């Protein structure tokens, strides 16, 4: 009997000590979280190049910047990734082209690339408002991945002004029958800024 009580007493004491320790640790962690600087999110991978590959794939970079990506369901060898597309995207902003990113990284050092991704605004369909949110670490990983692919392909055509017929094929991105949309769903959008994608 005595040994059972001793074991029970030790177990209760141990549990009480453990509970106090957990509460103390949790309180310390909560205090640390309040005072610790926040860090930007980043993709974790074995290497920056693998992180960059992942970011390119899940962010949809290939959708526009790799010719025939969408048409083939992404069945394009990575040796052909990100070489741009000569098919334009036309809308009220004119016609823009998805850049050959492998050529772009030849013109920019890593710091300039990060700045472009975080600050550039331009015409559709490039979703700059989303890309501008990329962390420094992820922007650098993306640069390193694109750079690792090496230079390939040609530069894409320059943007064409509104009302000018491009010499290339193009997709038209203009909504039809806006009168069918309830007025509450419409919002005034800022006009796109000039420049090329």
Write up what this structure looks like:
The protein has a 3-stranded mixed β-sheet, with no helix packed on it. The termini are far apart. The N terminus is likely disordered. The protein has 197 residues and is mainly α. Helices cover 43% and strands 5% of the residues. 24% of the residues are buried. The protein has 7 helices and 3 strands; from the N terminus they run αααββααααβ.
Q: What features would you highlight for this structure?
A:
mainly alpha; three-stranded mixed beta sheet; 3 strands
Mean pLDDT: 82
Strand content: 5-15%
- Helix percentage: 40-55%
The radius of gyration computed from the alpha-carbon positions, rounded to a whole number of angstroms, is 26 Å
Principal-axis shape: globular
What's the short story on this structure?
This protein is mainly alpha-helical and 197 residues long. It has 7 helices and 3 strands; from the N terminus they run H-H-H-E-E-H-H-H-H-E.
């Amino acid at each position: 009997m005595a040994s059972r009580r001793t074991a029970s007493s030790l177990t209760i004491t141990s549990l009480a000590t453990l509970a106090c320790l957990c509460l103390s640790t949790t309180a310390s962690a909560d205090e640390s979280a309040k005072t610790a600087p926040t860090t930007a999110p980043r993709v974790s991978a074995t290497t920056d190049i693998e992180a960059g590959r992942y970011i390119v794939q899940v962010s949809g970079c290939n959708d526009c910047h790799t010719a025939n990506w969408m048409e083939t369901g992404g069945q394009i060898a990575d040796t052909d990734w990100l070489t741009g597309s000569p098919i334009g995207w036309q809308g009220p902003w004119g016609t823009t082209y998805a850049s050959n990113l492998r050529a772009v990284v030849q013109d920019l050092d890593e710091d300039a690339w990060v700045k472009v991704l975080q600050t550039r605004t331009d015409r559709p369909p490039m979703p700059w408002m989303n890309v501008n949110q990329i962390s420094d670490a992820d922007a650098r990983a993306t640069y390193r991945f694109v750079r690792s692919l090496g230079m390939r392909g040609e530069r894409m055509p320059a943007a064409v002004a509104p009302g000018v017929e491009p010499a290339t094929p193009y997709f038209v991105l203009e909504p039809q029958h806006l009168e069918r949309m309830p007025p509450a769903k419409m919002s005034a959008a800022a006009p796109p800024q000039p420049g090329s994608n």
